[in-house]
Design a protein that fits this description.
- This protein is α/β, with parallel strands linked by helices.
- It has a single domain, classed as 2,3-Dihydroxybiphenyl 1,2-Dioxygenase, domain 1.
- It contains 3 helices and 8 strands; from the N terminus they run H-E-H-E-E-E-E-H-E-E-E.
- The strands form 2 sheets. Strands 1-4-3-2 form a 4-stranded mixed beta sheet, with helices on one face. A 4-stranded mixed beta sheet has the order 5-8-7-6.
- A hairpin with a 5-residue loop joins strand 7 and strand 8.
- The protein is globular.
Length: 155
């Protein structure tokens, strides 16, 4: 009886594993996804404080442990890597920016006002840019001159 049960289980295992053994592995169908952006800054502590307190990002563990890196979570699967050691501010224009989405532009503007962070529209003629699709945007710079957009995109 034990032999019959063993043979039955062995045959069942082979039957169930067969398709797995001969199945072709399909190529990944996902497209590339954004992972992180790294910015090079003069004063690591000042920049880390800015991204944590002004933007509201959460610090996450970084693997280097060398005092030159601070990492932040930007959404579910994206990160901001702030790297210290720059000898001058980043030479950027407003056309080169990265963006964050918030629930309320007016609430975020009030936060910036309270922290005395100056912001503007894309053109600089008002405080808020209204895109043709109804999304509101504001722009400001971090301590090293990197441009940041904050919008209320409902994605």
């Amino acid at each position: 009886m034990k032999t019959i049960a063993f043979v039955f289980l062995l045959q069942l295992g082979i039957f169930l594993a067969g398709p797995l053994l001969f199945a072709q592995v399909a190529p990944a169908s996902k497209s590339s996804e954004f992972n992180h952006i790294a910015i090079y800054v003069e004063d690591l502590a000042k920049s880390a404080d800015f991204y944590e307190k002004v933007i509201g990002l959460e610090k996450i563990p970084e693997p280097f442990h060398d005092g030159r890196h601070v990492w932040f979570r930007m959404g579910e699967h994206s990160q901001l890597h702030v790297v210290g050691g720059a000898t001058q501010p980043a030479p950027t224009t407003i056309d080169e920016h990265f963006a964050f989405r918030v629930a309320s532009i007016p609430d975020f503007m009030a936060r910036l006002d309270k922290m005395q962070v100056k912001y503007r529209s894309f053109k600089g003629d008002t405080k808020v840019t209204a895109r043709p699709d109804g999304v509101s945007q504001i722009y400001f710079q971090d301590p090293d001159g990197y441009w940041i957009e904050v919008n209320d995109d409902k994605y």
